[in-house]
Structure formats: C-alpha cells, structure tokens
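User: Hand in any protein.

Assistant:
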Amino acid sequence: MESARDLLISLARRYAFGDVGALASGVVDDATGVEAVCEFGQRLLSLDAEDFAAEARTVPSDLRRRARACTMPQTPREQPRGALESLRPAYGLLLEVIAVRWHRRELSPMVAAIHIASEYLPLLAFEPVLGNAGDPARWPVGLTAPGSRFGVIGDRECDHTKAEQSAVNRTLRVAGEPAEGWRAYFDRQHSQVAGALATCVADCRNPCTAMEWVGPARDDLTLRSRVALAFADTPLVRLRHAAPVGHGFGVPSAEEVLEAWDRSRMILAKNDVGGEASRDDGFPLPGLPSLFSAVAAAPVVPATLLGDITAHLVKLLQR
C-alpha cells in the first residue's frame, strides 16, 4: 500500500499542484517550501500571468527566471520585458499546458489555453519584423506615418472594428500611462491590437501607409499573419464556445477535440505556412507546435517548465 508521501509524489507527477499543496502539511514535516512550489506550479498551469514568480522566493531562481520570461511586465518601464520581448517562451508554456491538460483530460482549460494562443498568434507573426513581441513602448514610428489610419477612431475607410480602433488608439499612448492603466490595457485590449495588426497587413480592403515600414518582408509577414487569423477561426478554436469557458455549458470530449483539429488542419493547409499543421510532430494535437513555429518563423517547442517544477517538487517530497 502506498504511503501518504508516495501518494503526494504520484499526484505531483500528475501536475496536481493544488492537491499536493493542500495536503502537504499533514504529511511533510516542513511543508512551507512544498506549498510555495505548488502555488508557483499552479499559477503556471492556470496561466495566471500577472506575475508567475510573485512571492516565490523559495523556488529555485532558474525556474522563476523562466517563468518571468512568459510574463507581461506590470508597469510601462519594468525590466526585463518578459513576454513583450519575445512571445516564444510564452507559447512554449502554452504548448506544455495544453499537453498536460490533454493528458489529464481537463479539456475545458485546454480549450481555453488554445483560445489564448489564437488571440496573440498575430503578434508571434509580427515579432521578427518588430524586433519585439508587440511592446507598446516600442511601436515603430512608421505605424503612424503620414497617410496612416492606424489608431484613428471613427475612420470609416479603416477595416478595424470600433473596438479594434479604440484598442489601437490606446496602444499608441499607453506607455505613458500609470501602472494601473497599463495593466488595464493588457487585461482588455492588447489581444485586439494583435488582431488589428494582422488585419492591416493581411486582410485590409483599403490599405493605408501603416504597414509601409515593413519593407521587403511584407509578403512573408502577410502570409504568416493570414494563417494566424485563419487559426483563430478554425473549428478547434471555436470549441471554446461549446465549453463552460465560453457561452455554453457543454464540455468537448477528447474525440471531439481531435475531430475539430483534423478539420482545422485541412482548412489551414491552403499554403505552406498553414500546411505545417499537417506534420506529425509527436504533440497530442499533432502539428500544433509546427504551426506555431511556421507562424513565428522560428522554432516554438513545448516548454519543460512544468516538468522541471514537478521534478523539483518530487525531490522536496522525497527528503
């Protein structure tokens, strides 16, 4: 029969950070360190991204550093810039979370993570030309060159929705706002800016000068942005509206998720970038890391952060 400690180790290896943290005090002599690591791991698994590493001083510095690379800065001038420097670490974490949720058959939070990935995917496409991941403090001046309608509220020639126009207008000045306004912008509007950028370069019926700064990389960016927009409208992402995290009450089954992904892969396979989703790369949703890598024009692979947190937690439990 397993001992209570063995049971905790088994739970840790299943990424059940919340359960281990709740039960540790009745099993481990000094549970403080275990509880801190569990809280840290649970924040990452839940994508509680305000500050993954807040109050996690007992967690090894390497794990905290890797977590911070996935975090949006909480003030306009905070250094380092984390996910505004590059979204690739955050997408690695998203892929790891998706895989863990799949293996645990926690399909509603899995679908929610996929939806988050779809919202910011255009910024992953823009990262190579921006030199950052859409940092409002570092937008290129060309976005507002003479003749640009980028961020002009009420311009009827612009293909952005009213909400997108408002978000784009805000992103051009939010770096000068107090920390509270900065955080509110990221809570409500930054993902809309991502979609607006993709519309500018890939789907605008009345192009202005907003994207002329891109130069020779324009065609490549257009293709990758078009795939990012297409991914957001695939059957896989639309599953969110059939789950409790959406507008309904049903939870998709594993079979429904795989079937939706198969249909999504066929929809995306209209060009070389979208066709990368058809690769069998060993991921639970085969081809998803390959698709993200193609959109990013750089390797995007599942992180090992949750796995490394689990290994550290198991060591603590075995003492």
Q: What stands out?
A: Residues 4-88+305-318 form one domain. Residues 107-130 form the longest helix (24 residues). The chain has a mean pLDDT of 93.
